[in-house]
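*** Protein under study ***
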Amino acid sequence: MSEIYTLIEHRQGEIRDISFELLSCGRKLAEKTNSNLTALILGHNTENLVGKIKSQAHRILVIDSEVFKDYNSESYQLALSDIIKKANPFITLMGHTAFGMDLCPALATQLEIPFTTDCLDIDVVDNKITVTRQVYDGKLNAKIAVRDNPSYLFTVRAGCFLAEESDLKTEIANIDTSVTEPDYRKFVEYIETPAGDVDITKSDVVIGIGRGIKEQENLAMVEEFADAIGGVVACSRPIVDADWLPKDRQVGSSGKTIKPKLYIAVGISGAFQHVSGMKGAETIIAINKDPNAPIFNEADYGIADDLFKVVPVLKEKVMELK
């Protein structure tokens, strides 16, 4: 069986977190299929990028060219289609990100290979592939058997695999390319979202609030609890839509992905769009008066009670312990 390929996503000289998760996924699949994992890096002045993933794949293929300094799906497609055609890897993995969603459909169409998007898990048993995807707005996880084919392309949702370390002996190979930047689509610039007063991605403790807090005035109660426990307040999309908190506090598929040591979901039902952004937390505690709320399926600990009773008591207990 041929190799497992993983495309390394990077931006402005930094590897994105999803790439380390994909490498973990790729190693798992390589072990199951008794094959090797190859990481693909397309970039410019790539020594730093290569160094950060060395030992995490059996082989790293590098295309170092100024054309790939910044992401351009047209250039990437031209280079990757040539590589995949020649190597015919069993599985090629990319992140289900703006990057992957832009690139993968056109690449799969050009190569005429099966393409499954937004996978939560990928498994191989007796050379048969199954993928897990969410259906019915995240209410169910569906395990789907993929039709037999020599090669497959998958995008994987962020936060579904732990970015684990490895100590593989890595071979590094450089590939020459004749790809040039297309005249009809050129990279112009990155425009960063203005930084807010709080960076929820850097905090070890995050208190997430949802529509269960009912009114904006009740934010103060949660903020006091967050101060007591040494955390920051984040939220689900309805809170941002109501203009109760800024967009940079939103957790989820249309917000930020966070991996704190502790995440406390307060009045959050647990829609998959939100869960995708916080399921990587080390410990998850859910507070919701509905014992059947989906958030309890993700929680390590749950409190099925009125948050307006629970949160003040928790704050008092924390202050007592201090």
Q: What stands out?
A: The chain has a mean pLDDT of 91. Residues 205-321 form a domain with the Rossmann fold fold (CATH 3.40.50.1220). The chain has two domains: 4-174, 205-321.
